[in-house]
Amino acid sequence: MPWGEELVELLFCGSADAGPDRVLCLQVKPNGVSVSRRGGVTDPPTSPTRPWDSNAVVAATVDADAWFVEARVPRRALEQQDKRVLGFNVLRLDAQRGSTRAGAEPRLRATPRTGSAVSS
Question: DSSP states of the chain as a string?
């Protein structure tokens, strides 16, 4: 788990009854650096973690008062047990304010680079 850093964390789970060891975690920093891990990336740990070969393509854009993350993860990397189920969550860790943010009201918009619909 990053300490004293700002990042956006994307969590995926390809099974309705999976435990924390099946969670796939992609973390993206404002400078565009990303880290992919399998397992519950928590403190204290809820499960062992190990590297996850996500094959993700990420981009981060920093503006004066906000920053944005775009990520593309191939479906085959999500390890779905049931193709009808894909758990997904987004979390922002803000080190400057010492806070986390999840569950914000989603707003769909087109991304500047890909034109894809995203929630912000």
Answer: --SS--EEEEEEES-TT--GGG-EEEEE-TTS-EEEEES---SS-SS--EE-----EEEEEE-SS-EEEEEE--GGGG--SSTT--EEEEEEEETTTTEEE--PPP-EEE-TTT--EEE-
> Taking the model in full, what pTM does it have?
0.73
Fill in the amino acid letter for 117: A
d(C-alpha 41, C-alpha 37), whole Å: 8
pLDDT at 109 over 60: no
* Whole-angstrom distance, CA of residue 70 vs CA of residue 108: 13
Interval 3-24: pLDDT, tens = 557 888 898 887 767 778 888 9
